[in-house]
Amino acid sequence: MGKSMPIVLWILTGVVAGATVFMLLSYTGTTEGNLLTAEDPGGSGRDILASVGPHVLYTSDVASIRTGEGAVHSWIRDQLLACAAEEAGLENPAISRFVQERAKQLYLRDLMVDHVVAFIQTPSQAEVQAYMVANPGLFLLERHYYQIIAADSAIADSIHIRLGWGQNFQVTAQNSSLGQKAAIGGDMGFVTGGEMLLQGMPMEIALLDGLSEVVPSSIGWHIFKVSETRAVTDSLRVMRGAAEALYNSRVEAALDSVLLVTENRLSAEVVH
After folding, report:
1. pTM for the whole thing?
2. What is the average pLDDT across 59-66?
3. Is 121 left (phi over 0), alpha (psi -120 to 50) or beta?
């Protein structure tokens, strides 16, 4: 279950993630920066903070993203290496265009998310309580979870098959799990389904009874088991989680509304 992402996609993902901040810092030092340097050496009155050949980093660039100390030296080092890569003929223009577009896309996406979030009301205590009552399986019941984390899908599938044959879950966790709780049999203690959702688990894990299927995540492949349930004992902790879940659901609903309106105006499709 859960095939590994092709290595090319992993490389592209890493390139995009690593390049985003760099691109935002040095965007004016690419085509736009070259034009400014050639046509207007003064940069239209903007203060130049650093430069590498024709590439320019303005004081306002750094101030606008509130970057940390040492960013200027990092920019210089990165720009020198970028120039060296260009001179060595290492650049793939198609990937460069993709990275630049992706950096802009992520920047604009985050602006839109921040804009939407600014209008979301924090739920009141009464709203949180009503939300909990409306979702009792997630917030009024605690499940005793055990977890096994495997390094890849093949190992997880093999473990899952053995567990299905009756192999002891806790012993298997001690022998095979990569999770922090492996030494105690993968015992996560009593957790609500809502708290599992906040950890990024799907609804079927939040409402689990017995042994789960293999569930992929950013840290590995998970297998869960719920051995027993009980009524919530720490209502304050659960209310905090429910408040966060309700707030997140409002954010997601607002973003979905923006997506729907925008998609109705613009054609969005997967061509191949």
Report:
1. 0.71
2. 76
3. beta
